[in-house]
Automatic annotation (TrEMBL), chain A:
Native source organism of the sequence: Nocardioides psychrotolerans
Transmembrane portions of the chain: 21-47, 80-101, 113-135, 155-184, 205-227, 263-285
Alphabetical keyword list: Cell membrane, Membrane, Transmembrane, Transmembrane helix, Transport
Compartments (UniProt record): Cell membrane
Principal subcellular localisation of the protein: membrane
Protein name: Spermidine/putrescine transport system permease protein
TrEMBL record, chain B:
One GO term describing the cellular component: plasma membrane
Sorted UniProt keywords: Cell membrane, Membrane, Transmembrane, Transmembrane helix, Transport
Principal location class: membrane
Matching InterPro entries: Bact_Polyamine_Transport (IPR051789), MetI-like (IPR000515), MetI-like_sf (IPR035906)
Annotated transmembrane regions: 21-46, 80-102, 114-136, 142-163, 184-209, 244-266
Membrane topology: Multi-pass membrane protein
Family, similarity comment: Belongs to the binding-protein-dependent transport system permease family. CysTW subfamily.
Organism: Nocardioides psychrotolerans
Pfam families referenced in this protein's UniProt entry, alphabetically: BPD_transp_1
Name by which UniProt lists this protein: Spermidine/putrescine transport system permease protein
Entry annotated with the keyword Heme: no
Chain ranges of the ABC transmembrane type-1 domain: 76-262
């Protein structure tokens, strides 16, 4: 804000008070309800567990070494794997969809975007529950498969890692489509035409021009699906039947069941650090693509 | 004839736009994937039988059950109360923050801090708040959920209002000051009317987010506080009855209405 020099002492004083009045209440509110809680979780990482929840403030690094326990490493491996599969599937569904929406006439584009968003605004638990109804052995999918003679006997698709992946994709697909749409819509069609005019085929134009230009959208969408998938404990519980344990379940259990808050804090902060690293990567990709486009 | 050439060019452009070809396939499949589960739920809510999965004749029976379920109604009232309170706090604080950020600072750090609660994984905020309320000796209740929802809701209001302010310059506000209006009157008479659609959109966003929010509520609820998502979670876990299908249908109907009304309201205020 350029400060203009006219006005007396009163005016200058007011100009100093105004930012305080505007920014003060919100920042104070954040400091108490976000800053202190995140600070506490950070501090808990170095404390010992209390007997009935809470912590004993004694310096300890045991919580960090427990992370390398083979039981937990297995959980990390499985969660990272499932979250990655969910992200790749979301990308595979999301990219062609976002591309198609970007090619719709403007009127229909808005309608399509609203249609993408509406399921996202329906209650998350209800959306997960819908898949219990669909995948159950008595469910509609079985009716169809048996009816068509694809399978002879009813079988449950529920309580498998596959069901967990379907639930994660269904939960976060809109978060993939929207940034992809924003990235694809921004591309100048003439760049693609130039590529084909210069003799590149459709595949080469896609891989050489379209995909690199939309990479920031791909990365953003992937982060928005990947990170919440890792931290989700509802989908593994309801669709995985408790057999699939993800990092989210582990964190939840440390706080609400095992009452080991320090270890739960270490796990939670691992997710935060991963998120920060991914965002830094995204910023790097965006800078490279935009810098390249300008050059 | 220039107009005909222009018309033909436009026609060609339109042809290129509407000629989706094989792209209808992903569009159709994605729509099927997104809406089939919801449509099945809606259909099953009219099931006369006792199973949530098997069709056994048409009936409104489960809607009647829904209307009689006093626990559920209580949970809805609790959720609406929390959402209202959280929206009020988040809208006021978020709007002030957004204006402050846009007009009084260029700090990228502050900007990032103001959005942080929206980016932070909900589970992390949830355990942090659980720890905070425990350490501060504040008993968990509907009020603690309200405060938690207000905290992340503020970030969403900041995001929406800030985006609107980025498109407008400060000239009108400066003119108002030059004509002798004070900071307060400038804010109420000039700034606020120009960002009103964004403030309304942000408020609606917080309200719906709060109504649907499960993870933070689950961690910060008192032992007897039941919000709607917490009740739905318990219902799904303990045993599936067609009543949930009826509830789901009502909730889907409400969210569709809110999205359509919000989209229209924003478009109308932007036009005028």
């Amino acid at each position: 804000m350029p400060t203009r020099s006219h006005g007396g002492l009163g005016a200058r004083l007011r100009r100093g008070v105004e930012p305080a009045v505007l920014l003060g209440p919100g920042l104070l509110f954040y400091a108490v309800l976000v800053g202190v809680p995140v600070g506490l979780v950070t501090g808990y990482m170095f404390a010992r567990r209390g007997r009935f929840g809470g912590v004993e403030w004694e310096l300890s690094l045991d919580n960090f070494s427990r992370v390398t326990d083979s039981v937990y490493l297995e959980v990390f491996r499985e969660s990272l794997g499932l979250a990655l599969v969910a992200t790749v599937i979301s990308l595979a569904i999301g990219y062609p969809t976002a591309y198609a929406i970007a090619k719709l006439p403007p009127r229909w584009r808005t309608v399509a975007l609203v249609l993408v968003v509406v399921p996202f605004w329906t209650n998350f638990l209800i959306r997960v529950y819908a898949w219990i109804v669909l995948l159950n052995s008595q469910g509609v999918l079985n009716d169809v498969l048996v009816g068509l003679g694809v399978v002879d006997e009813r079988f449950t698709l529920l309580y498998t890692p596959g069901a967990v992946v379907v639930g994660l994709v269904y939960s976060y697909l809109p978060l993939m489509i929207l940034p992809l749409y924003a990235a694809i819509e921004k591309i100048d069609d003439e760049l693609l035409e130039a590529s084909t005019d210069l003799g590149a085929g459709r595949v080469r134009t896609f891989l050489g021009v379209q995909l690199p230009l939309t990479l920031p959208g791909v990365v953003t969408g992937s982060i928005l699906v990947f990170v919440p998938s890792l931290g989700n404990f509802v989908v593994p519980e309801l669709l995985g039947g408790g057999k699939t344990v993800m990092v989210g379940n582990l964190i939840r259990d440390q706080f609400l069941k095992a009452q080991d808050w320090p270890f739960g804090s270490v796990l939670a902060m691992m997710v935060v650090v991963l998120l920060v690293l991914l965002f830094l990567g995204q910023a790097w990709v965006t800078r490279r693509v935009e810098g390249g486009a300008r050059a | 004839m220039p107009s005909r050439t222009a018309g033909r060019a436009a026609g060609r452009a339109a042809g290129r736009r509407t000629g989706l070809g094989w792209l209808w396939l992903p569009l159709g499949l994605c729509a099927l994937f997104l809406y089939l589960p919801i449509l099945v739920l809606v259909a099953m809510s009219f099931n006369g039988g006792g199973s949530a999965y098997r069709w056994d004749g048409f009936s409104f029976r489960w809607y009647a059950e829904l209307a009689r379920d006093s626990d559920l109604i209580e949970a809805v009232v609790t959720s609406l109360g929390i959402a209202t309170g959280a929206t009020a706090i988040a809208t006021v604080l978020g709007t002030l923050l957004a204006v402050g950020l846009a007009r009084h600072t260029r700090s990228k750090m502050l900007e990032a801090a103001a959005m942080a609660p929206a980016i932070l994984p909900d589970l992390v905020l949830a355990i942090g708040l659980l720890a905070f309320f425990y350490m501060a000796g504040i008993p968990k209740s509907a009020l603690t959920i309200l405060l938690a929802h207000a905290a992340f809701g503020t970030a969403f209001v900041v995001a929406v209002v800030r985006a609107r302010l980025a498109g407008s310059d400060a000239a009108l506000e400066e003119a108002s000051r030059d004509l002798g209006a004070g900071g307060f009157s400038t804010f109420v008479l000039v700034t606020l009317p120009s960002i009103a659609p964004a403030v309304v959109a942000g408020a609606l966003l917080v309200f719906t987010l709060s109504l649907d929010e499960f993870v933070i509520a689950y961690f910060t609820a008192g032992p007897t506080t039941e919000t709607l998502p917490i009740t739905v979670y318990a219902m799904v876990r303990t045993g599936v009855t067609p009543e949930i299908n009826a509830l789901a249908t009502v909730l889907v109907l409400i969210s569709v209405t809110v999205v359509v009304v919000a989209a229209r309201a924003v478009r109308r205020t932007e036009k005028s």
